[in-house]
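#dry-run=false #mode=assembly
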Amino acid sequence: MDPDLNIRRLWFSCAAVMVLTVITIVADRAQQLTPLRTAVHDVLSPGRLILLSIAGSGGVPSVPPGESDSDSTGSLQAQLARNELQRRQFLIENAQLRNELQRLRAGHNESVLPGDSLIQFRRLSARILSRKGMPGKLREMLIDVGRQHGLRRSELLLDETGMLIDQGQDDGAVAGSEVLSGLSVVGRISRSGRWVSAVQPITGEGFTAQAQLMRQSDLGAHFGAKGLLEGTGDDQCRLVGVAYTEPVSIGDSVCSVGVDGLGGPRLYFGTVVHAEFVAGGEWNIRVLPAVTGETIDKVTVVQANLNQRRIESPRVDP
Amino acid sequence: MKTCLIVMLGCWMAMVCEQTRPDALPAGSVLIPMVAALIFWLRNATGVLLGGVALIIDWIARPNGLPLMPMILPVAAVLLIRQSWPGAQFKYRRVMMRLPTWTQPLVLTATAVMLQMSSTLASFNGSLSLTAVADCLPEYTVTAFVLSAAAGFIIQFCDAMGIRRRPGYV
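#status=ok
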């Protein structure tokens, strides 16, 4: 075999892959890849469901005792199907958000001053210790450690009933910080102890955050009306403050308006699952969260900090 | 044909595993070694084409920035493969250092991981990007590099035993 001929074939195949890649990029920019993307996920779904069922059968059963085998199998299958649909929707939304970001960057005003941003967003990884408050075993362990470190009686442990993560004030986690899974908002730190913090989920009563609709059109994704996302205490949230004159559709995405009101990356809350007119000239919008604490083990705490380099740099007089 | 079917099944399983356990297996940590093993097992145009198509399909399923891996990895693979052609070793001996066979999948995987990190850096802004890269680098090290090194050793062993077909056939 002539090695030069083989090398030419190699470069030809390399060129073919590059051409296919360019075609893929162009098709993605033209929003033509969505059916193909759905087909790819359909092909991958059987394998994922098999692996999930194998992993689920080998782990701790999540069905409470007392339910029959057929009920538990049916509920697990329904939950798997829901999770799969939610995950695929999230992937597609992610791709659309990315396209929107690229379009916004391309049209960015060049008169913005270059240099470091004054506000930086610090990310802190955390693990979920408990989803239903402080377990007794952990409470005992923390009390013992607290005694050794000379904590006073007034420095009580957190006594929350919600999600608990393994980062506290010693690690820089403070109350009011957003808690994310990827770019989806899981909740907000409600109270922060020395080593652990309690997280209020976005569906929890009392949770509020500024939110904005993101709607799909033939021209792509674009931002819609702003409102206030509130937790309802059940498994959904509601978006209030959206006037009846604003367009709303089931399936619209709901994302944040910055982080703590300071700009920053847009975070994803969930999808509109119910929208109807109510008295008072507003929409009654229900939002299904993208991520719940039941399906994740790790989260990220986001905090806004001042850029020390900007603060400490010498002042330059004009 | 049989080899291509086995390879396609392997790439499908790699994508399935990564999407089922995104917490333990970052994007590409199983697929990249699989593609590297495929390319260096076949060492011909078919292997490069199949590997590139697998990377494109993975990017379609999980788009993340520009598809740098399908664009750059085939070029790196061809540069590594051509130095190992039986008739080409004298022509290219002075041009580049000849890497041992078992290191070639590792070099390709390292290139792919660097491309993946650059996509991650471009997706986030500010300090989020560096922490995102630092979070997944240990998992890449444990999974992708180990699998690539194992693939390299297996390929070299098969070459020594005469199990693998000699390179030069398309």
